[in-house]
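User: Predict the full complex structure for these chains.
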Amino acid sequence: MRSSLSTLSTARRLAALALGLTASFGVQAQAGAADAARAKLAQGGDPVLPASVRKAPLHASPSGAALDAAVEAKLRAAFDAADTTRSGTLSRDQAQRVGWGWVAAEFERIDTRRSGRVSFDDIMRYLRSRAASR
Amino acid sequence: MNAGFGIRAAPGACVATLALLLLACGGGGGGTTSGATGGNPPGLGFADATVYSSAADAALPSATEGAAVTRHTLELGGRTIAYTATAGHLSAGASGSGTAQASMFYVAYTADAAAPATRPLIFFYNGGPGSATVWLHLGSFGPRRIVIGAPATIVPQPVQLVDNAESLIDTADLVFVDAVGSGYSQAIAPATNQSFWSVDADAGVMRDFIRRYIEVNQRAASPTFLFGESYGTTRSAVLANLMVSAGMRLDGVILQSSVLDYNSNCGLFDPGQLSCAGYLPSYGLTGAWFQLLQPQPTDSDAYAQQMRDFSDQRYTPALAAFLGAQTPPAASLLDELVGRTGAPRAVWSARFNLDPTSYRGQTLAAQLMGRYDARVAVPVTSPLAAGGDPSASVINAPFVTAQRAHLANELLYSAGSGYTMLSNAIASWNFGHDGRTLPDTIPDLATALAQQPALRVLSLAGYHDLATPFRQTELDLARLGAAPTLRQRVYPGGHMIYLDDASRPRMKADLVAFINASP
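Assistant: Here is the predicted structure of the two-chain assembly.
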């Protein structure tokens, strides 16, 4: 018998009526009764959504090949943001300058042609070859 | 709270001004060391005159990087650990030639004797969004811990802060940081707090804080870990990808009580929009706790596995048919659900897609179970039930009290305003991410792992958490496919698993093994 399944203590069966607790220590919640109630809860009920997005359209969460495509899309967005001149390639300095330090650090391994510039396809080829070798 | 100074200067004196707290009074059987021991100087307090605001449009005109620095000792595992606590601000964005964008409040605990350059470093944050990082700070693995004893409905009064036998300070240095608009963290003009109230900007400013902390403290060679809870796991997945992409060192991500995909957790939505199958195993473990099951299981872990299998093989297909084609469930399946969860037959008949709010309110006669910790049940007429979650109501005020006293009397930090436990950030938070209305951060985690396959991930979940149910977390993480660096643990306990005195030592052991594992 594990302790987690042990019998209930008497204390738990009793109502805890003695605690008239208030928590006004800098709690900021000005937007109505629901927020006021939330502010009295630890962590504000995290996770919780405001009513405005509680009926938001839900999407099919990707896995498998669809997740691979989502990863590629994120990397693509990063590449396009870094490639400010729309040249289709990045130099190591360029990658470093825009904050994509990972590309700069892996540059030699991505740039197999030793051209000094890497394309998005080069990056994906490197990731796939590394994944396949693991 | 400017009255705290001088307390540490008189070691051994029992301070009466904060009668609610047993600090430095020697009353805790050896567990109340608060710092002025071992011949260390008491440290330097810091009276920060700045008034901090959590308002959406608030901005500091400028910021300085001041901190209170105090020295303490802790008895842990038979040895004495001397450590330094640093409580103050660093400016996110100010690294290198950058511009300061937000003044981030943090409390860092660093062991004095250890070689700091290579000692592991863990960054902790709670979620909300809008919550200060007080729950992890004073409840989990810091050197000082509030006595809660979950799932008790009464917290010992006066509130007690004790030396934490499960602190990770013997293994790593610990940094607890507040998100912008919470605690004492605030945007710096021209940015406002609202500038950082989105999934992406929030993670970005946290990355910039971590970069600044590592730069100022010369910790670039330290194995670095993230420890987020709840919305903090959403932040961690996005942040992990930002850090890996930036080329920053990141060794591991610890996810506690996860909400990695807002689109998969039915409890966040109005009932009926989404399958609640991810909650079913948690109902089973909760019914077992209250001894409502037929037959009554004897082993939590074994029963959890039975419930995973039952849910996958029997309930989930029937629920899909019910939600998709209104196919009514078989009577035998309803009977089995009653026996496996403890919710009455009438409840299962009326709500085959049983949502957590209905389970919590309709399983025990005239009682409401907690959302954060379903084991905390009170009569529906109890004041603790009024906010909708008795387990959250029980602990809120004690944490407020403890944080106020810890800052003033032990960390010797004060500001010109109160500490914001919870901002109203959620009301105007931009949950959009990668083109979706609500964040799905599994692609972020997958992208971080694609760039850095050695990145380690540890998921921690509580059997009795009806906010972020353990099975849903497992199903979300299963989307990663083969993930050789992923470890998952589930413990008896609620959303804040560490408040359970039996689970916290088990968590610590698993965390130490995770942190010390070879990269």
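Chain B has a mean pLDDT of 91.
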